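Lab manual, section 2.4: Encoding a predicted structure.

Procedure: take the sequence of the chain (223 residues), apply the prediction step described in section 2.3, and record the output as structure tokens. A sample record is shown.
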Amino acid sequence: MHGSHSNQLAQDVTWRTEVTDEGAKIIVTGTIDSAQLFGRRVYVYRTITVHAPTDGQPYVLVTDIVRNNGTMPAKAALLYHVNFGAPTVMPGTRVLVESSAVTSRELCESVPSARELPVPTTEMTEAVFEYTGVPVHNSLSTAVIQTPGTPRDVELTWSADTLPRLCQWVFPTRGGWALALEPGNSPMWGPDRVGEDHGAPLLAPGAEFTATARVRVLAAGAS
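Recorded output:
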């Protein structure tokens, strides 16, 4: 998660394990606050589930309930920074996202396309893209990372009703090689990022929403 709350220590942390005929799970819960004495009272109630199922498709699922426990409307911007590196990310790795358009924040000659990872560069640079018109099925959207020559794909699925935007970050510099897919609910740049709240949704007192992000490993071509 981007933002100040990503550096907050969680409270009320618990963990447990579950073993069933469908596989084994580790479940961790905790509460992250964004609270001020004379200001906002926004809390994130997080559950992280790590599942090793018998079907051979392990996943990590993050489920966040974001609630405004305060007495005034509060900005509730969320951006999940789902980071990938080697061996998933290498030159030629493909990012498969159905979309009507892809826009870049600015031109980056070292990363000419969002759809395929380039060769590393010695230049210290980055590229940021946003996908629009991503299909939604059963309130979920999906992106797949395909690594050439490997038998596995990595699938990211997120709650599109509460995270309607998808950005992508590429860090092509040698020694810092990385790719991030970033579901979010607020604009990172452009004409929608206006006003005091920069286009982020406001959460009414007592209101809440649930956001999810799941990373799953699949057999190549199974998604």
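Check your result against the sample. The chain is about 0% helix and 50% strand.
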